[in-house]
Amino acid sequence: MEETPSGTPVGVDDPYDHAGVCDHLTDEGKCRFAFEHPEQDPKFARERRRDELRCPAADPDGDWNWEDCSHYRCRNRERECVRCGLDERRMAHSDERPLLEEHHLSYSGGGETLSHEITVYLCRWCHAKVHKSWARIDDDVNPDPEAMAEKEGRRSREQAEATFESAAERYDPDS
Fold it and tell me: How many helices (H) and strands (E) does the chain have?
């Protein structure tokens, strides 16, 4: 199983099995990174411009895979835990700890530095289980009871804030 630099497991054998389409890919199959940030990798940008910014990894007939691209990045945008399915419930104007945390699947591609950014969301409880044991992100599990209680507590507070209360009721010292 892949591990972090400190040796804790990340919950997958191959991060690319859980990675999706590159964040830099446009709907037309073009590389947004080469267009918007040519100064960060001029050689890469020149090669992509020669090919009209076409992404070779997105071409089904091409000879590239996502891991072949030096600027591949895939960050999950779904706001639910990929392991147990718990969805985020954020409280506006609150500094409470979020229910979901970003979890990095890829740390180093055989070298010392981060190879590609591949991230998913895990709830705090699944995140701890993945890093502190041999739990995997593709385990079929239900949300932790403590996680459900925290989510429902937030939902109750949210509903209480949305109820109508007249100013007379709110500020009447006798009630």
Answer: 5, 3
